[in-house]
Design goal:
This protein is an alpha/beta fold and about 350 residues long. It has 15 helices and six strands. The protein binds ligand AR6. The site of ligand AR6 has 25 residues, from strand 2 and helix 1.
């Protein structure tokens, strides 16, 4: 995925460059700046001294010394003064200038902290939105893997209302359906059993195992194989055509890497991960039914036994196909992110 939001300590990220939320002296400080200098060692400070500082919204690059990356890009975020003093434009400039330096230095991957959102007081949710917007804009014309590294969980404030709506949607689906499902399962089997993958993939299978038998009895296996359905790759390409969008618009919206898309395009039997299949369903703005069909082509299904799946279902049924908002919600509920 070209943009990944991860929770980690940025000094531990292995990529070409990490970005430092510095102050205009570039001589170190607290927060992420302190952590980066500490992990990089004295060499970083000695190089920074030679840079002669940096203005708010600008960026400068140095070596990374003991850090597990090649470069550190130092940028100076704005101090939050209520939001009417050019803070947003200055913060946008930090991301643009940082990304520009990364591209000029042939970086294939770069990790940003949430600049200004600590000591400088920029509200975290707004800081995150600026980061996502500018990085997404940049990725339209550049191939790069960009990480936004979140240190503390409260950086993800998806909004109380949305959080509560999703929470009650999960509650309804998760509790009710699981209760119902487990009860019928136990009733039918007369004992508690661990759900098989088939039972999860094809709800209803538990009701009558015999119902499956004809599928295996009729015709030869060779006939079945010869009449194999449209594959995931074929359905994906068909849907892209039907929606009248370009391949690149689709994989970019899905936040899927170009190389991965080429693999899927070139191999009609390619089996993507569930998260990748879902990312395409979201990018294509498929209905719930179409999403389930696409998933099935890849051997997956949406299950009410999984919070992840219920959250995805929530967004699809509410026709909200913004992959970053979905990922923010997944993150808030401690779930894996789409496409990652
Ligand atoms: N990895 C990732 N993110 C981190 C880490 C870490 N190791 N440590 C903190 N954060 P801040 P600012 C997050 O204060 O607001 C310094 O003293 C943190 O939770 O580091 O731009 C400089 O020298 C927050 O979300 O930077 C400046 O004087 C985000 O990084 C001033 O602070 C940014 O918090 C800059 O303030």
């Amino acid at each position: 995925m070209p943009l990944q939001i991860v929770r980690n300590d940025i000094t531990k990220i292995k990529c070409d460059a990490i970005v430092n939320a510095a102050n205009s002296s570039l001589l170190g400080g607290g927060g992420v700046d302190g952590a980066i200098h500490k992990a990089a060692g004295k060499g970083l400070l000695l190089e920074c001294i030679k840079l002669g500082g940096c203005k708010v919204g600008q960026a400068k690059i140095t070596g990374a010394y003991k850090l597990p990356c090649r470069y550190v890009i130092h940028t100076v975020g704005p101090k939050w003064k209520g939001g009417e003093n050019g803070e947003k434009e200055a913060l946008e400039s930090c991301y643009r200038e940082g990304l520009k330096l990364a591209a000029e230095n042939d970086c294939e991957s770069v990790a940003f902290p949430l600049i200004s959102s600590g000591v400088y007081g920029y509200p975290k949710a707004r800081a995150l939105k600026v980061a996502v917007d500018i990085i997404t804009e940049f990725l339209i014309d550049h191939d790069m893997l960009v990480y936004i590294v979140i240190f503390d969980k409260d950086s993800f404030e998806i909004g109380e209302k949305l959080f509560n709506n999703i929470a009650s949607y999960i509650d309804n689906k998760y509790v009710d359906d699981n209760f119902e499902f487990n009860r019928t399962w136990a009733d039918n089997m007369g004992e508690s059993k661990i759900l098989t993958t088939a039972a999860i993939l094809y709800p209803g299978i538990e009701k009558s195992d015999e119902a499956l038998a004809p599928a295996f009895d009729t015709g030869s296996l060779k006939d079945e194989v010869d009449n194999i359905d449209e594959s995931f790759s074929q359905m994906l390409l068909r849907k892209i055509d039907e929606k009248g969008i370009t391949d690149s618009a689709c994989y970019k919206k899905a936040n899927v890497d170009r190389k991965l898309f080429s693999k899927i395009r070139g191999d009609i039997y390619y089996h993507p991960s569930k998260a990748t299949a879902l990312a395409f369903a979201i990018a294509l703005e498929l209905s719930l039914e179409e999403t389930e069909e696409l998933l099935l082509k890849a051997g997956f299904a949406l299950s009410h036994s999984s919070k992840f799946d219920i959250i995805i279902e929530y967004f699809i049924t509410h026709k909200n196909y913004n992959i970053f908002e979905i990922n923010e919600a997944l993150f808030a509920f401690d779930q894996a992110l789409l496409g990652s």
